[in-house]
Fold this sequence. Notes:
Number of strands: 6
Structural class: mainly beta
Radius of gyration: 20 Å
Oligomer: single chain
Distance between the termini: 46 Å
Helix content: 10-25%
Order of helices and strands: EEEHEEE
Strand order of the largest sheet: 1-2
Shape: elongated
Amino acid sequence: xxxxxxxxxxxxxxxxxVITGSLHVYSAYVEDLNMLHEVFPNLTITYDVLIQIPVRTxxxxxxxxxxxxxxxxxxxxxxxxxRMKADK
Length: 88
């Protein structure tokens, strides 16, 4: 829906649809809520359960040396998760 155009209260076209009102869901992810608040600021979203996505650390090591590979790309669900830190 965020890719559609909209019309504001004055009848002017907007880059995004203007969605107002309230929506209640049983559970919501923090990241999704943040994105929805940004895209649809006039929509009030309430929830029963707020889910935090767990943080995982992935260390990519070379097969032969078992040394950390700096600059290796890690792709999770199509998103590049490159935030490499060297081991001590």
